[in-house]
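DNA-3-methyladenine glycosylase II: structure tokens wanted.
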Amino acid sequence: MHEDFERCVRAVQAKDDRFDGWFFTAVLTTRIYCRASCPVVPPKPENMTFYPSAAAAQEAGFRACKRCRPDASPGSPQWNERADLVARAMRLIADGVVDTGGVSGLAARLGYSVRQVERHVRAELGAGPLSLARAQRAQTARLLIETTGLSMIDVSLAAGFGSVRTFNDTVREVFALSPTELRARVRTAPATAPGTLNLRLPYRKPLFPDNLFGHLVATGVPGVEEWRDGAYRRTLRLPHGPAVVALKPEDGYIGCRLTLSDLRDLSTAISRCRRLLDLDADPVAVDDALAADPMLGPLVATAPGRRVPRTVDGDEFAVRAVLGQQVSTAAARTHAARLVLAHGEPVDDLDGGLTHVFPDATALAEIDPENLAMPQSRKRTLLGLVAELNDGGLDLGAGSDWQQARERLHALPGFGPWTVESIAMRSLGDPDAFLPTDLGVKVAREGLGLGPAAFAEHAERWRPWRAYAVQHLWATGAHPINRLPAA
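Answer:
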């Protein structure tokens, strides 16, 4: 996108917010960089140059605009639409892998050498993994400066900087303001409890929240998830400890209230919440492609901006998918709640009724099969999945290889197309995952007057957005997953 100069210029002159995060505009005369929708008078085209990432603009010596805050724009949708090396690397960087394990840790997770990862990422993003992680740390620091009363020493440590000096230098370089000056610009002092932050998560319009939050709430596991005061709330397992998040649909953004046990997990928590709600999607591109089909066109017109509800933990959803095989939603929630009570990590939730973090594979490896109230075949399926996750043979995380994960899932006993594609849609985030045998999709198919073979052939027109097509097909039914819960 950033290499198409004329298209970028048109987007900037139109202040088109659909392109925020797709590219960044650097102004040669002022040495600042902006998002496409910056409200100031656009510079002359001869004074513009474009970069594929905020990190690349920063590395070239440009500082972030104080008006449009380009560092806080939605992420590029392509990192969640692709499964190649660079896209996987970008998802892992957003998940905090470079901060915890360095570039060598990133390369190990991807299965490539450090040199290969550096070369591929820099070729496409204009900056290496360290610069990209540094840009993310700068944004985290800004959030902590503006939304908490932490000392600057604590902010620097929580944001992942190795020293206060590096923190100060980075903030001045990126924002052209000192940390103290950034805090002085905030008109109201933070009034939250220690470890709690109130944030706004931006997205590209339009966004249709009904099925997004309706699905999460209707399938929510008691003790892990709940709907309270108009917000979806759930527990999170993060690198430095558990957390609780409340996500509320607002006009133009998602309200996000995070209660962290360790502020070093802030950027990882934000990344996982954005991934859960599919906030970096390009809804206009998806809707335009699906609306061109006569069968889906009326559905898209009725509810533009549908997102695919995903997950904050790929392993968790895979376990829940197995528990949901051939049973009702209520029964699946009951089975999951029993696992949580028996093996989950307890948490304190002063604002609601959350009690546990969903157990990880290590905890689930201690399951006694005799305590599982389900058929023997599903017990074997669940235990086989847990063993594969616990041994590290199956990666369902942000940087997973989608095709390899599918192959490993298919090789496990009891994993048919519905389970594999459900995991591909929710855990892996594949926008083309498809569920033709799902009951809701079958009902929609019959309503369209198509047989299985004709439907499968017709669905080829929806590539690479079949996961979004599924959301529209589900909407033809009366299931509560299609409705925004009452406040």
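The radius of gyration is 22 Å. DSSP finds 22 helices and eleven strands in the chain.

Cheers.
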